[in-house]
Design goal:
GO molecular function: structural constituent of ribosome
Number of strands: 8
Strand order of the largest sheet: 1-2-4-3
Oligomer: single chain
Organism: Cryoendolithus antarcticus
Helix content: 25-40%
Protein name: Small ribosomal subunit protein mS35 mitochondrial conserved domain-containing protein
Distance between the termini: 75 Å
Strand content: 5-15%
Largest sheet: 4 strands, antiparallel
Shape: flat
CATH topology of one domain: Double Stranded RNA Binding Domain
Structural class: alpha+beta
InterPro entries: Ribosomal_mS35_mit, Ribosomal_mS35_mt
CATH architecture of one domain: 2-Layer Sandwich
Order of helices and strands: HHEEHEEHHHHEEHEE
Radius of gyration: 49 Å
Pfam families: MRP-S28
Length: 331
């Protein structure tokens, strides 16, 4: 009996499975025409779910943009203006970040870029001083100074701060009475990193080594004859100013004159000495003080009473609990 049943199971398994149909429509309606849209019941928008309303809203936005592209975008051609490059009277280049009406914390940032050589009245000496004052904000490869600000809430306030900072830099650079920082070399470590050198294929390194001849040692730090004479003069002036103080310290202390008591007509007159008396005190050795402190500590320990701790004597033999020996604890 097992063999015929096995054959039936194999035949049933080898036949393709036909998925069951869950439709309620009869076969005679399959070839009929679709229903007329006018005969359908009206659509109730209030009964649509939230996802359907979101889909309809996206379709409305796309159609609004399509209408704007078709009818309003061509009208912008009347507002176009030809490009005019900035003149020498406009050396400052401003950069803003806009998110097209969206409120974003990064939209208040303002970036200012300019070249000191393009500023009016700026000489090479003043431009070099300005680059030293700017520090890492100076790019020696592009010869451009870049300053940014986002500390304030609006773009106008950040721009005002950048304008004031630039004015102070220019004023200090053009001030000939102040320090020119001639003995301070121009710091270019912020651009001479390995990644930039590899990306620029050695151009940065070549431009930065034009002045020092490829040695890497700043020219301002080299000790010349003029610099030696200047240092010697400064040391001489400092020595002259410190000479009276050194003589006063090296001079021996003079003993004050003894005061004399004179009694004239019942009055006592005291003639004070010109200088106060200075008594010579013996030097105190730190080793003696340490030894005395150790002796005092030993005496205090010896005076303290000795307290003997009372200990409970241990029982002899193997430890037990209720007469049962404990394994592993008597070893």
């Amino acid at each position: 009996m097992a063999t015929p049943i096995k054959r039936v199971c194999i035949r049933a398994a080898s036949r393709p499975a036909i998925p069951p149909s869950f439709t309620t429509a009869a076969a005679r309606h399959a070839s009929s025409q679709p229903a007329d849209p006018d005969s359908l019941p009206p659509l109730d928008l209030a009964s649509l779910p939230s996802l359907a309303h979101a889909d309809l809203q996206s379709h409305r936005e796309l159609r609004a943009l399509a209408r704007k592209t078709t009818w309003e975008m061509p009208l912008l051609a009347s507002l176009r203006r030809p490009f005019q490059p900035p003149t020498t009277a406009q050396p400052l280049r401003w950069r803003y970040t806009t998110y097209m009406g969206e409120v974003h914390p990064a939209s208040r940032k303002v970036v200012l870029e300019f070249s000191p050589k393009d500023l009016e009245g700026m000489t090479e000496k003043a431009a070099l001083k300005m680059a030293k004052l700017a520090g890492a904000r100076w790019d020696p490869v592009k010869e451009v100074m870049k300053i940014s600000c986002e500390s304030f809430e609006t773009q106008a306030m950040n721009k005002k701060f950048l304008v004031d900072t630039t004015r102070r830099l220019v004023k200090e650079a053009l001030n000939e009475e102040g320090d020119a920082f001639e003995d301070v070399p121009l710091d270019t470590r912020h651009v001479t990193n390995k990644r930039m050198l590899k990306r620029q294929k050695g151009l940065v390194k070549a431009r930065l080594r034009r002045k020092d001849g490829g040695t890497g040692f700043p020219e301002e730090w080299k000790l010349t004859d003029e610099r030696r004479r200047e240092l010697a003069e400064r040391r001489g002036e400092v020595a002259k100013l410190e000479a009276p103080e050194m003589q006063a310290l090296e001079a021996p202390s003079e003993e004050g004159e003894e005061s004399e008591m004179h009694v004239e007509d019942g009055e006592v007159a005291m003639q004070a000495s010109a200088q106060p008396q200075v008594e010579a005190t013996p030097a105190i050795s730190g080793l003696d003080a340490i030894e005395r402190a150790l002796e005092l500590r030993d005496k205090e320990k010896a005076a303290e009473p000795v307290v003997v701790e009372a200990r409970t004597p241990l029982a002899k033999g193997k430890p037990t609990r209720g007469g049962i020996p404990l394994r592993g604890r008597g070893r």
